Amino acid sequence: MNRLGRRGAFWSAASVLGLSLWSSGAPSVLYPLYAVKWDLPPVAVTTVFATYQLALVVVLPLFGNLSDLFGRRRIMLAGIALMAASAIVFAFAPNVAFLYVGRVLQGAGAGLAMGAATASLIENNTSRNPRSASTVATVATATGLTFALLLSGLFAEHLPRPLLWSYIVLLVLAVTAGAAVWATPDDRPLMTKRWRPQVPFVPTGFRTGFVISTLSVSLAYCVGAIFLSLGAHMIDQFTHNENTALVGSLLATSSACIGVTGLFLPRFHARALIWAGTALTLVSLALMAAASGFGSLPLFLGWCVVGGIAYALAFTGGLGLINDLSPTHHRGATLSFLYLVAYTLQAATAIGVGAVATVVSLSTAVGAAAIVLAVLCEAVAVLLLTSRRTATPLTNLAAS
């Protein structure tokens, strides 16, 4: 069989990242429909959403180093298979328990695939700019999420069986991505070590950089948790608009802004991107609170646009910094640890916001989340300032 070369492996890995976010975002526009169908409170919706992240929290510490041991290709294929299985579970779910099962499969699949795919992007990057790999990762994930949100909304509004078609498309895409990865070269290491569960760790020498990178990515993910788990509910409740095509288009605008912004980021230093992402995240949080308080669709659109740009800056900056710092032989494990922390915080955000929304009100939950995430922004800024003043290796490497 003819194998694809490095360029083919690079773009196949990008497709796996896009598939992972398509899988994650496919139910987001549909959560209000599930809530009506099965009479679910907000906390039930957000715990279904967070089950994905909780599955990742289990998978990443145990299996995050598998691609370092057995090759990126094999582990991506295993992750794709789990995401394909999740599509089948969601497509024919008879009750809410099946949504939890589907999210476990999605989380486990993404946990295996995303670290391996990101490492494959870095290692098969043929561009002269080493940061183009992190940019492509941002654009690929944004593209997958954009089309998942947009098409889910359109299908639900205009086709019969609104809870089916998004997952049929996901299944087809999983098969296509699997075929592409299957055609890439075998990248198993020459010397294969015996697998054992790996306690999360950060190699010495760049721990401050790892914390900054991880918090920057986590900031993007935590805002994304509110957006993806309750964004459709917020638009429905605060603006009284139940058109799923419009809701999907609004949510897709944010992820589209992530992808478009990502195209312009390779030339910028990672620290500059993190600074800009932190600042714009504060602006997006203010817009989120204002949109909820005034029930304004234009303000929701502003939140989607600014939040999408902020996500791209924070995510690309954090990922670019850790790519600069992590040693090759620990890259898969290091990236998996980054995703572990980011997804843990994302799950906590989703569950916390859902619990407050159920016990008190959705508007109170949104306001409280804005305050907590603003504090996280401040923490990132303090660490950036501290690392510069102490002239750690982070400063020298990130500026090179």
The CATH class turns out to be: Mainly Alpha
Compute the CA-based radius of gyration. 20 Å
Low-confidence stretches: 391-400
Shape type: globular
Could you spell the SSE succession in H and E letters? HHHHHHHHHHHHHHH
Main sheet overview: none
Q: Mean pLDDT across all residues, rounded?
A: 87
Q: Give the total of beta strands.
A: 0
Count of separate structural domains: 1
Q: Give the CATH H-level superfamily.
A: MFS general substrate transporter like domains
Helix content: over 70%
Secondary structure class reads mainly alpha
CATH structural fold name: Growth Hormone, Chain: A
The CATH architecture assignment turns out to be Up-down Bundle
Q: What is the straight-line distance between the termini? A: 41 Å
Provide the β-strand percentage band.
Answer: under 5%
How many H/I helices? 15
Concise synopsis of the structure shown:
The chain is mainly alpha-helical.
Write up this protein:
The protein has helices at residues 6-25, 31-38, 42-63, 66-70, 72-91, 96-123, 132-158, 165-182, 207-239, 244-262, 270-294, 297-325, 331-359, 362-389, 393-398. It has 15 helices and no strands. The radius of gyration is 20 Å and the shape is globular. The chain has a single domain (6-185, 204-398), classed as Up-down Bundle (Growth Hormone, Chain: A), CATH 1.20.1250.20. It has 400 residues and is mainly α. One of its GO terms (molecular function) is transmembrane transporter activity. Keywords: Cell membrane, Membrane, Transmembrane, Transmembrane helix, Transport. It is a multi-pass membrane protein.
